[in-house]
Description:
Strand content: 15-25%
Low-confidence stretches: 1-36, 42-48, 50-63
Shape: elongated
Order of helices and strands: HHHEHHEEEEEEEEHEEHEHEEEEHEEEH
Number of helices: 10
Largest sheet: 9 strands, mixed
Helix content: 25-40%
Structural class: alpha+beta
Mean pLDDT: 81
Radius of gyration: 33 Å
Amino acid sequence: MNKKEGNNKRGGSRPNSSRPSSNKPKPAMAKRAQGPKKAKPSTEGAAPKKAAKPVNNIPKPLKSDDIRLNKYISNSGVCSRRDADIYIQSGNVKVNNVVITEMGYKVKPGDVVNFDGAVLTPERKEYIVLNKPKNFTTSNEDDADHRNVLELVRSATRANIQPVGRMDKNTTGLLLFTNDTDMVRKFSLPNQKSTKIYQVSLDRNLKFEDLEKIAGGVTLDGHKLYVDEISYIENEPKTEIGLKLRTPNVKVVRAIFESFKYDVLKIDRVSFAGLTKKNLPRGNWRFLTEQEIINLKNV
């Protein structure tokens, strides 16, 4: 647009030079009038843009430490965000000794949050993956014969972490721990989007016809279970089977093969929602990377 306007000015000045001298001041006045009109919008338009940047950026660092009340409660590990909303609505939550029932209320640094009579102290979110060995259980029940998996990760953190899902004493492989109650709930839902891969050892070779039937889906207790993938493991006997599922229930793996009259000798979870056992020996644990945490939240 500026180039065209400039050309119009030059094009207009040439014919004016051939006109009588009495007419010369008119275009000159017009030029003076046009100049300020063009200059004003450009300076006025630029000023707000420059001023708007710092105005928009100022609140961001001030609000970065503010957190929604339901998330604050969830971060403390007492319940999920959804359950926290119920407590808030029922008037069981106070902030600085004032009952808060407003949904979306923001807690500021230094605020004291009282939840159902107890002062909350939110924990930093921790995410740990363990390569679980045999003879450890995820059950909270006292069992003199078997130890709890929490013993294996006790030295990792002081946070109130818990295993995501259940694994029986004979099942080995990847097990995720966290104090992020929202994530625990997410991976406990039956309609899972995340996949888990198991290596299953059977008492005898899996017939190809049975493999094909399992691949087409299995009905257990009147419910159809769909299998993402099943195959023989390369360079292994046909007793070693790879199975990919979305269900969070490990017991289903055993039930699938038992429904075809096979005895399951061993179940090893080699992948969980994109996490693998690479460089993680049996019985060892490690913290998740930031990218792995982001990936789990986006599943």
